[in-house]
Amino acid sequence: MTKYGFAINLHRCIGCRTCTISCKMENAVAAGLQRIRVLNAAGTTTYDVPTGDYPDLALDWTPVPCQHCDTPSCIEVCPVDATSKRDDGIVVVDIEKCIGCGKCVDACPYGARQLDETAEKVDKCQLCAHRLDAGLGTTMCQICCPNRAIAVGDLDDPESAVSKIVAGNETKLLNPEAGTAPNVHYWYSVAN
Amino acid sequence: MINARKDRMRLEFRYFTVAIHIIEPVGNMRWVKYTTFSPIATFPIFANEIDFRDYRPYSANVRKTGDMQKQIHNAAIRNKGSDYGYTPWFPAVIFRCEKRRRRKFMLENRDSLTGEELDASAIAQEEQVSSTMKRRTFLKLAGSACATALAAQVLTGCQKKEAEVVAAADDGQPDYDSVTRIVCAPNCVGSCGINAFVKDDTIIKVEPADFPDKAYNRICARGISNAMQRVYSPDRVKYPMKRVGERGSGEWERISWDDALTLIHEKMQYNIDTYGPTSNAWLGMTGSYSAIVQIYATMMAMTYEGTAFTAFGIMGDNACNMGFLPTTGVQQDASAWEDMTGSKSIIMFGCNYAETNMQEMHFLFDAQEAGAKVIVVDPRFSRTASKADWWIPIRPGTDAALICSLMNHVVENKKYDEEFIRAYTVGAFLVDSATGKFVRSGEDYVVWDESTKAIATVKALPDEAKPAYPSVAVAGDVPADAEVPKAAAILGSYSITVNGVAFEAKPSFQLLVESLAEYTPEKAAEICEVPAEDIVKLAEIYINETPARLHISQGTNRYWNGHLPTRAAIQLAAICGNVGKPNANINWAGGTLMKILFGVGLTAVQPYPEHFCSSLPGTQWMDTVATQSPYPVKLMWINAYGWGTQSPEMTYLKNEVLPQLDFIIVSEQMMNAGAEMADLVLPISSYYEEPFDLITAWSSMWVQIREQAISQMYESKTDYQVGQMLAEKFGILEETEWKLDIKDYYRKHVIEENAAPEFNTIDFDELLEKKVVRANYPDPYVAFESLRFNTPSGKVELYAENLVEFGEQLACHYEPFESNRNAKATEYPLTFMNCRTVFTTHSQHVNLDWIRELIPEPWLEISAEDADARGIASGDVVEVYNDRGSYKVKALITSEIKPGCVNQRQGWWPKHFVEGHYSNLLHMELNPAQDAISETNFAPYDNLVQVKKA
User: Fold this and answer.
1) Do residues B519 and B408 touch, judged by C-beta distance below 8 A?
2) Considering its fold, how many domains does chain B have in total?
3) In this predicted model, what pLDDT tens digit does every residue of B73-102 receive, in sequence order?
4) Does the N-terminal or the C-terminal CB of chain B have fewer CB atoms within 10 Å?
5) CATH code where residue B914 lies
6) Given CB atoms, is B359 within the 8 Å cutoff of chain A?
7) Could you tell me which of B222, B343, B210, B198 has the C-alpha nearest to residue B689?
8) Residues of A in contact with B142 (CB under 8 A)
9) Are residues B217 and B273 in the same domain?
10) How far apart are alpha carbons B632 and B624 in whole angstroms?
11) B142, A190: Cβ pair inside 8 Å?
């Protein structure tokens, strides 16, 4: 089986939001919505300020795309079966079916879904499935990240770059206690 | 103030880098009329300072010229005989852009519709086209949520449309007509290759384009937003616009290009007849890294015998150059980014690569992951500092004291590299204690030979054996008489007699050691607010964790004393033997951008043979106009310069300078604050619309071409096309090189005639075919690898005898102009910086919707300590003010900034602030030592302010 997921190197993330903007371009994401949000320590996407007191400080960012969980909490809550998990692990929304009720937005423990109120549809990271399906092998956020912080690949293939990162490094998951078994692995290439 | 400045303008310039001089006194003025190969590095000079009257490409101390014609000749011979080979050129294949629907429609309907109607109609038609566009399904993928017809979206200013399915081809890309490789280069230093996907003459997406070395494939949020939103911004200047209301009122009348050119012709000709041709002046900046855009102001000034103001000083990038020049003879260089991997320690002063060189930051991560210890010295906890192994917060403008203290530790502990100092620096050369000048025997330097207990002489390295900047190629061996004896003393004090004259003399390294005595770690700790033990620890790392790399950049550049840290850093690297070595070195900026400009010949900047311009220092352009001295300047033509936000002394500019000008022309893409000060605004095309251009890079060795991706929008033209049209209006087109297609101009004048073999051996046809080639510099590139320097001696000139009268013969520290320890600080206690953000390049991206999602509005960064003392909370509107002006902005409390400092991220337009603009607060004080070296640097971080709740 194929199981697509991310490995994101937080040491290499400088909070430039190129992933966010490249995704907006690639996927024509509506104004104000972001499919991959780069959260600062305050959990927001603007006004990045360090934590700590001068000069004992830290600046950290966490890019948060859809976690393409093994057991996504967004599927069950959908009243019209618009959300599904593909065989390759990508969690997708059938936009034709979506009625924009927002239940999945509330159900996602990662804030990875946003409601496009104008279109009355939900909006989320689809892991650039159109690119992966066409054999490009990369997502837009991945090829645009100037610091090469984002890796995407098949977590079930031990030879994939993402599997090697997970195997060879201490990685962590966001909010694992939510119990959805997310597939975005965060790590630091240099001790933080 | 103005009179005092006039006097300082007449300082003698005796130590500078110039390329060409055309000597011709102007009236009874003591100024000489001259020009230069490299218009961004020209300086006014006195006729009596120079004793040559031919064209000389040159890049070192003018007094030490020698026969430079011979040097050109030798370089030419070397080129042909070198490994680079000789490349004949072939006629260029003229690139023609397919005429697309939008352009056709615009042209067909031009006469029947007004501008707004034309726009509205064109958009309406485009939308119709988009909606009927052939679509393929999305590969059964269950819909890209809320996807939009991209073409329609961008044309209507990114307004959200009804949900549609993005048309996708089997290749995973949206339905497109063509992919064109362009180069994004808005002065952010990257010069990133970009593949533009175009559908119906509209950019629908961009991706990073390939470089021969894929490590250079990259793009960023700014570049993406530029392509998708700046090109289509409602702020674009669409047509030639003539001012009809008061200057600055924003009231414009659209006029035709013919009317605009007639008006320019009329104004210029009146000035030529009334005040002389130099009353028409040009100032071009670096808003585009196009080689021609950067020499455009000089090309225009040359054609019409006007005035070209230089750019480097007013740009604010010149201070590091002035640390390099007296010491290494070149204004900048750096080893390749890849050379960082392998370093054990990387120590950076004023380098915030994560925000300002974000495209290159991954090379630093590569080095760090390979084991390099990264150390960042910066008053701010920058994004780069946050990634460092060690951040050293420092009091602003004091880096030179810290570096001198590192040298103090090196010298105290005898950790310097004696052999390197002796062989490759002037450390052994004896200095006359009475005059501070090198002791000379005839032309030769004098050393004390310990083996013979007698003096010996050393000849300067002959010019033909030195690399002729921007080339790094060297020929022949170092003559034996230019080698320093192995037993030459670098320490001590000697009573010597040279040709019957007695001197008390010391080796210059001895003087260096003595000069460092005052920079004890304790003293530096007091100056820099860095603990003494940290200074010692840093020095030990530099000594022991080698190869050790020093980096210095714009953060130190932007203080009035900004040349001092670079000067000190070079000295530190040199005494430790780290210059010219892999994974070590002193690194400032080493790309093709400056190198190609220093290599272009007279013919590149002189489209009209036998016509010359006058060149004046741009740092003083405002004073020149305000005082109408040394001669009247009545017309200013600005291009590629966001002068409405990036200038110092905006109040002075508006009140004293602009009223002296009869006519102001601004060539712009955007109706920004600079364009709004004009009498006539000319619409300039974006990168994606230019028929052809050639782009180099600030910090890498690539040379790229830019081809047309979409038709030129509205009635926009490139700067070069404007130059051609004006030449035609003046009736001189066929007599000038403006008649050339821009591609031929580049081929002939920028590449083939380039003085540097590294450029003139580029096969232009190969460049056209491949779109990107590497300039023929050694690969991997290690700066100063030949260990032959373009200085008078041919060595690292630790000791600069020409700067004795400024007390800067050796590295030293003095306070910034508006130091927070000055008396002025009692009234205005806060050091005001204006750093960039990672989201913008100067003023170019702040008006774009996507960027505004990331940075919604401007803010003033202030520490909690300083905010509390003033009763300020985040989000409060505050007034920032000093004796030059004030503005109002919201405050953001952040621990990123050192208490005692505030930071206004630069580039925001006046309309974005609550009131006023920060450029009102910035000074443009001259630094006599800098003017002696080259030209004072604009110091935008070196300003004291006070902040209060508004």
Assistant:
1) yes
2) 5
3) 233 333 322 222 211 111 111 111 222 233
4) N
5) 2.40.40.20
6) yes
7) B198
8) 82, 84, 92-97
9) no
10) 8
11) no
SS3 B168: strand
Smallest CA–CA distance, residue A145 to chain B, in Å, is 7
Chosen domain end from B213, B230, B247: B230
Distance between CA atoms of residues A129 and A136, nearest Å: 10
Residue type, B860: L
Angle in degrees, CA B445, B449, B451, rounded to 5? 160
Let me know whether B683 and B566 are in one domain.
Answer: no
For tokens 């007695």, name the residue. B502
Give the range among B150-154, B198-202, B922-926 with minimum mean pLDDT: B150-154
What CATH number is given to the structural domain containing B378?
3.40.228.10
State whether B413 and B508 are in the same domain.
Answer: yes
For residue A2, with 0-12 CB atoms within 10 Å meaning exposed, 13-18 middle and 19 or more buried, which class applies?
Answer: middle
Residue to substitute from B135, B137, B144, interface A, most A β-carbons within 10 A: B144
Is the same domain home to B113 and B214?
yes
Distance (Å, rounded) from C-alpha B14 to C-alpha B63?
Answer: 8
Q: Residue B804 burial (CB < 10 Å; 0-12/13-18/19+)?
A: middle
Q: Please answer yes or no on whether A53 and B163 come within 8 Å at the CB atom.
A: no
Q: From the CA of B839, how many Å to the nearest CA of chain A?
A: 7
Q: Do residues B575 and B598 both lie within one domain?
A: no
- Parent domain of B721: 260-314+593-694+716-774
Q: What pLDDT does residue B248 have?
A: 92
For residue B535, tell me if it sits in a domain. Answer: yes
- Cα–Cα distance for residue pair B125/B186, rounded to 1 Å: 31
**What are the structural domains of chain A?**
4-187 (3.30.70.20)
Whether B158 has its CB under 8 Å from any CB of chain A: the answer is: yes
- Binary contact (B218, A146; C-beta < 8 A): yes
Q: B389: Cβ–Cβ under 8 A, 6 or more apart, which residues?
A: A190, B368, B373, B374, B375
Question: Model pTM?
Answer: 0.87
Residues of B in contact with A82 (CB under 8 A): 142
10 Å Cβ neighbour count for B880? 27
Residue B354 lies in a domain: yes
- Contacts with B138 from chain A: Cβ below 8 Å: 130
C-alpha–C-alpha distance, residues A166 and B88, integer Å: 54
Amino acid at A96: E
Percent share of chain A, pLDDT over 70: 100
CB atoms within 10 A of CB B885: 19
What ipTM, to 2 d.p.?
0.98
SS3 of A153, please? strand
With respect to residue B19, please indicate whether it lies within any of the assigned structural domains: yes
The closest of B663, B660, B616, B618 to B636, measured between CA atoms, is B663
Q: What is the pLDDT of residues B563-619, one digit of tens each?
A: 999 999 999 999 999 999 999 999 999 999 999 999 998 999 999 999 999 999 999
Chain A contact for B362 (CB, 8 A cutoff) = yes
B66 belongs to a structural domain: yes
- Do B286 and B425 sit in the same domain of this protein? no
Task: Tell whether B215 and B304 lie within a shared domain.
Answer: no
Q: Minimal CA–CA distance to B345: which of B533, B573, B568?
A: B573
Q: Give the rounded percent of residues in chain B with a pLDDT score beyond 70.
A: 82
Which of B31, B52, B87 is where one domain is finished? B87
Q: Does A157 touch chain B (CB under 8 A)?
A: no
We report the CATH number of the domain holding residue B749 as 3.40.50.740
Same-domain pairing of B743 and B796: no
